[in-house]
Amino acid sequence: MEGVDDELRELYQTMILDHNKNPRNFGHLDSHTAQAEGHNPLCGDELTVELVVEGDRVVDVAFAGSGCAISTASASLMTEFVKGKTVKEVEEGFERFHDLVTAAPSEDVDAPELGKLAVFSGVREFPMRVKCATLCWHTLRSAIAGGDEVAKTE
Ligand code: ZN
Known about the structure:
- The protein is α+β, with helices and mostly antiparallel strands.
- 45% of the residues lie in helices and 19% in strands.
- The chain is built from four helices and four strands.
- The protein has a four-stranded mixed beta sheet, covered by helices on one side.
- Helix 2 (69-82) packs across helix 4 and helix 3 runs antiparallel to helix 4 (127-145).
- The model has no long low-confidence stretch (mean pLDDT 90).
- Zinc ion is lined by residues 40, 43, 45, 67-68, 70-71, 132.
């Protein structure tokens, strides 16, 4: 099924390039209830995540900053994923995503609940890139936890 894999890879690359070029939820919210900054010194990615949490639900989210294509696309797709979800669902999403990008390349990871985030399964083959893909998630979790600390991938 080599051909299917190639097609998938191409589809994934297209989606990552698209979200890098036109990031969703990019910029700053008029007001937010939580925010955090994240740095990935290995690559130079820097981003800020802002959130509006009402009760236990993430009702709005935005990110800003600059980074490589993987980090920007990951943040863009993450904001789409978490908007409207409960904090618990976000935490579960992070765990699934983390499993997805850190699994052994030979391992079959099926994560239908992650939807479009599955495009990052290819990152497994590039350990340096895992930090780019997870930076936004670490930053988001740091914002939810209410810490003023800068999230670092190290
Ligand atoms: Zn990066």
